[in-house]
Amino acid sequence: MIQPPYLQKGSKVALVSPAKTVSRENVLPAIEILKSWGLKVVIGKYAFAEHFQFAGTDKQRTQDLQKMLDDPEINAIFCIRGGYGTTRIIDNLDFTQFQQHPKWIIGYSDITALHLHIHNLGIQSIHATMPLLFTRDSAQSLQTLKSALGLGKTGIREYPLIAKRKGTANGQLIGGNLSLMVSCIGTASDVDTAGKILFLEDIDEYLYHIDRMMIQLKRAGKLRNLAGLIVGHFTAMKDNEKPFGKEVNEIIWGAVKEYDYPVCFGFPVGHEAENHALVCGSTSQFTVQSKQVSLLSPIIS
């Protein structure tokens, strides 16, 4: 996998909105944080546009992201927020210039579609907190993002997490939002998960939806040959009046218990304040012990 160049003080970064609309006022604190890191911030023309729930029309959002992909002076692209809309424009993007001059793309949730698509181009990207959430998410979340961009120290992350199946795995990190992973199956953004460390998270879903999506991943062969599975935050899950009968961790474990790779629950990635950066495509070592989980990756802080 190709690793985009690390940022330096003075690097130029872009802010765009490929999905849901957002107000400029809510992003001003993040702009100041990025400037405090020594970065020069460029705002997309339609970053704060509004077309119903979207940040501008599909054409406008495509134009904004395309411009930043093509601009050789832009060293990283921050997706301001998720929501819904990235899959509506992804097939209209031309990644030719991006492949010739790779740059970091940062985001999560709906931006999972971009991470998966870029993974298939052989280029790393960063699953991490986004500018809209810089002031909500923890200082550690921001520090791991800063480190992923080459602006901070690196090391090994160790967590007292739920170790469901012990073991050590080596492989490329890939994953993100479960709903987006499933929606990309059968498209140009569908990824081969064999031999890779998959991480999953989601928000605001019914428990039976989670079960259906995990079964879909299993039927599509996405779970069979993993090197390891990291389960992150599954936030604000819902149930019907007649309960589904299983909690999230039980549902996910039921889909993978027949395999033999290491599995952990509760990793700090997803729609909560502890949303630590993971470099999609980076070769990492994932170790699950009885009372501790460690992840050794080039970006850890």
Automatic annotation (TrEMBL):
Superkingdom as given in the UniProt entry:
Bacteria
Tell me where in this chain the LD-carboxypeptidase N-terminal domain is found.
13-128
InterPro entries named among the record's database cross-references: Carboxypeptidase_A_C_sf (IPR027461), Class_I_gatase-like (IPR029062), LdcA_N (IPR027478), Peptidase_S66_N (IPR040449), Peptidase_S66C (IPR040921), S66_fam (IPR003507)
Establish whether keyword NADP is in the entry: no
Q: Name one Pfam family in it.
A: Peptidase_S66C
The segment(s) forming the LD-carboxypeptidase C-terminal domain are 170-283
Q: Which UniProt keywords apply?
A: Carboxypeptidase, Hydrolase, Protease, Serine protease
PANTHER family listed in its UniProt record: MURAMOYLTETRAPEPTIDE CARBOXYPEPTIDASE (PTHR30237), MUREIN TETRAPEPTIDE CARBOXYPEPTIDASE (PTHR30237:SF2)
Which family does the record assign?
Answer: Belongs to the peptidase S66 family.
Q: What is this protein called?
A: LD-carboxypeptidase
Lineage in the entry?
Answer: Bacteria, Pseudomonadati, Bacteroidota, Cytophagia, Cytophagales
